[in-house]
Specification:
Elements (H helix, E strand, L loop, with lengths): L29 H10 L6 E5 L6 H13 L14 H7 L6 E4 L2 H8 L32 H12 L8 E5 L7 H12 L5 E7 L7 H6 L1 E4 L5 H10 L5 H7 L4 H9 L3 H12 L3 H11 L4 H21 L9 H9 L3 H17 L6 H13 L3 H6 L1
Parallel strand pairs: 1-4, 1-5, 2-3, 3-4
The chain binds zinc ion (ZN).
């Protein structure tokens, strides 16, 4: 991107994410932005922006919301960052704008003022309990939040006549809240635009899906992601990007994460599995958020399975040698079983009885996949 937009009001653009251009977009989002501009004359009343986690969809949707409300958007449809509407928007006080998201995300922002979160992804950071509240903040979008929208929608608008609701991650709408939202989507009030954002289309009610226009945002081009990571000073960008399935923001997050050391220790163990080592490793890793450990193991096992099946590797190409050696010692049925079993573990990782036993069990099951021990015993 060029640097001709240096005249944008720096204060007004204060909530733009690091690593974005002066319009607040990531370098891979240009084509999607253009596509939205083409849809503007006949913009659907509900857009469902979906795609892989950690690619900046939420920031993108926020920029679009701002642009929809801006009084003087530029020729490219970008918000001016200077009008009254933009000023209110970046302060989250625009009277015709509502942002609906789980309380947990508010709590995380509050406890981490300068956080530059990636799409509400909390796998890498682990779940932090609320610092100040006695009750844990909700991970769901709750019915009260959706009900509050009813009043908002029925009021007349203050500015340009448009009102915008940004709701994310849409998969955190609990069932009751989703049904309440459905009513609003069914009877759209004029000039209201809903922007829903999700990583997981398959976790949304089919009725919600059917009321929204889907707007896919795919995996960013690899070369662009790599360049972006490298210019952000991320070392080992290639390996991190592969590990995070091509999602650059997650790769950056993992590079900075304090979990990195623990994940590397886990990978080292996975490369040389064994019963005794499993118990020791479980002991050492028991303080690490389980979701992050299970996710890493899922990727590793996925790679083993893929390697066995088709000779390819997706997440850990930098560990090709170790993976190949392990693949030779395992059989495809065992690996297929492990893929399923680790999916199940992911589902219960939030509520284990004992973290240490959970990890131990996981590593022992993993060790059992390899014939080395069985052949010699
Ligand atoms: Zn503006």
């Amino acid at each position: 991107m060029d640097s001709t937009d240096a005249n944008a009001n720096p204060n007004a653009n204060a909530n733009a994410k690091a690593g974005t251009n002066p319009h607040g977009l990531y370098p891979w989002q240009g084509p999607a932005w253009l596509q939205l501009q083409q849809m503007l004359p006949r913009l659907p009343h509900a857009l469902l922006i979906h795609g892989p986690r950690g690619t900046g969809k939420t920031a993108f949707a926020e920029r679009f919301a701002q642009a929809l409300l801006c009084e003087r958007p530029d020729a490219g449809g970008h918000a001016c960052n200077a009008c009254a509407s933009c000023t209110w928007f970046v302060q989250y006080s625009h009277p015709d704008y509502r942002r609906v998201r789980p309380e947990l995300l508010d709590a995380e922002d509050a406890s981490n003022d300068s956080a530059e979160g990636a799409d509400g992804d909390n796998e890498a950071t682990g779940e932090k309990p609320a610092a100040r509240s006695s009750k844990a903040p909700s991970k769901d979008i709750r019915i009260v939040q959706v009900r509050a929208l009813a009043d908002f929608i029925n009021m007349s608008t203050h500015r340009q006549g448009r009102r915008v609701i940004l709701l994310y991650p849409a998969e955190t709408l609990n069932h009751i809240a989703a049904n309440a939202l459905l009513k609003m989507l069914e009877e759209p009030s004029p000039s209201t635009v809903f922007l829903l954002v999700t990583d997981s289309l398959d976790r949304l009610l089919p009725t919600i899906l059917s009321r929204c226009r889907k707007f896919p945002m795919g995996e960013p081009p690899r070369a662009q992601s790599l360049q972006w990571l490298q210019s952000a000073g991320v070392k080992n960008a290639e390996a991190l990007l592969a590990e995070q399935g091509g999602a650059p923001l997650r790769a950056q997050e993992m590079a900075d994460s304090e979990l990195r050391g623990a994940i590397d220790e886990l990978l080292l163990h996975l490369a040389t599995p064994g019963t005794e080592a499993a118990i020791k490793t479980a002991e050492r890793l028991q303080k690490i958020p389980l979701a992050a450990l299970v996710a890493s193991m899922q990727r590793w096992i996925h790679d083993l399975f893929l390697l066995k099946l088709s000779g390819r590797i997706r997440y850990y190409p930098s560990h090709e040698k170790q993976l190949a050696a392990l693949a030779r010692r395992s059989d495809i049925a065992g690996l297929a079983g492990a893929v399923k079993s680790f999916n199940d573990r992911r589902a219960i990782a939030d509520h284990p009885m004992s973290a240490r036993l959970f990890i131990e069990d996981m590593l022992l099951e993993y060790a059992g996949l390899f014939a080395g021990s069985r052949i010699t015993s």
